[in-house]
Design the sequence.
């Protein structure tokens, strides 16, 4: 069964990564749009069978600095109001949380590197169970508060809210389970300024990616596959979202 997924990608190297394969296996045709330069106003937020909002190195609250965020937040808000399948990763999850009325703000520290999630009981019963005990990539200095009515799924010692769900169709992940598999070196180059400012050991990050990346990729694909299988079948397949 063919379905359409709209992917909002803010920066080239933060792409679908290890999520691309299970999406293709589930029959999704991908249309990638860059909201920093492309107009969302011509797209019906309810048209895609699945909306995926990816990460980026800016704050979800910085629309005064990055005006495109105003339109993107409105688009995500309208989408979430339909309760149709929506997945957010890092900045994407933060934008979803803001669109749902929750606060997003700096944590006062950064979480960059690989560590496992601590799953809540609800998280252990969700598709996130595939991530249990597996070091996952984290790369953020902001965090979202839990939206009203959302179910908390995971945390780390640095960040209390790592994942939330609203029913079976809306999932926000602060971490990057999709990271590494399509080229971690791009992350190191893309974030070179931040890494230098924080005096982080690039060689150690690269070594950890080689060490933990393969297992993280397998776990991420299993998690997404389970989540996609649990989504309700759409009644109507939209037109006009050609392949990426």
Sequence:
């Amino acid at each position: 069964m063919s379905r359409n997924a709209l992917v909002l990608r803010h920066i080239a190297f933060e792409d679908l990564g290890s999520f691309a394969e299970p999406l293709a296996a589930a029959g999704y045709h991908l249309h990638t749009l860059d909201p920093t330069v492309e107009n969302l106003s011509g797209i019906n937020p309810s048209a895609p069978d699945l909306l995926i909002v990816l990460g980026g190195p800016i704050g979800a609250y910085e629309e005064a600095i990055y005006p495109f965020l105003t339109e993107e937040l409105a688009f995500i808000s309208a989408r979430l109001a339909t309760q149709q399948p929506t997945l957010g990763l890092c900045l994407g999850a933060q934008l979803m949380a803001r669109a749902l009325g929750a606060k997003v703000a700096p944590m006062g520290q950064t979480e960059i590197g690989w560590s496992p999630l601590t799953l809540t009981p609800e998280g252990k019963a969700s598709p996130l169970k595939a991530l249990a005990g597996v070091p996952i990539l984290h790369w953020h200095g902001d965090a979202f508060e839990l939206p009203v009515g959302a179910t908390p799924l995971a945390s780390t010692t640095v960040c209390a809210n790592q994942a939330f769900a609203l029913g079976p169709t809306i999932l926000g992940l602060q971490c990057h389970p999709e990271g590494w598999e399509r080229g971690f070196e791009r992350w190191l180059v893309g974030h070179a300024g931040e890494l230098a400012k924080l005096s982080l050991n690039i060689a150690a990050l690269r070594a950890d990616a080689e060490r933990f990346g393969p297992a993280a990729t397998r776990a991420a694909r299993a998690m997404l596959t389970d989540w996609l299988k649990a989504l309700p079948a759409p009644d109507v397949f939209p037109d006009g979202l050609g392949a990426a």
